[in-house]
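Check this.
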Amino acid sequence: MSEMTPTTSPPEEILPAATFDFTSKSAGISGDSLLRLVTQGSACTILLMLAALLIVLSSAAMTSIRSFGLNFLIGTEWRSYAL
């Protein structure tokens, strides 16, 4: 049996690690600005949904309000209807 001699390759050139400057202003949008836009958009969407909900509920209740008036909010009379 022949004795195996370890073969060594020449050392690879060690390149410096890539450095990123996260503090510089770039032409793109930053993460903070993107987060601000997303949260503002979400807040506007929620307010629009709330307004739409109020519009739908008030339009659906309009026949009852016309029939009985708004006195049901402050009145003390209770009319229970037996089924």
Observations:
- Residues 31-68 form the longest helix (38 residues).
- The mean pLDDT is 80.
- The CA atoms of residues 72 and 79 lie 10 Å apart.
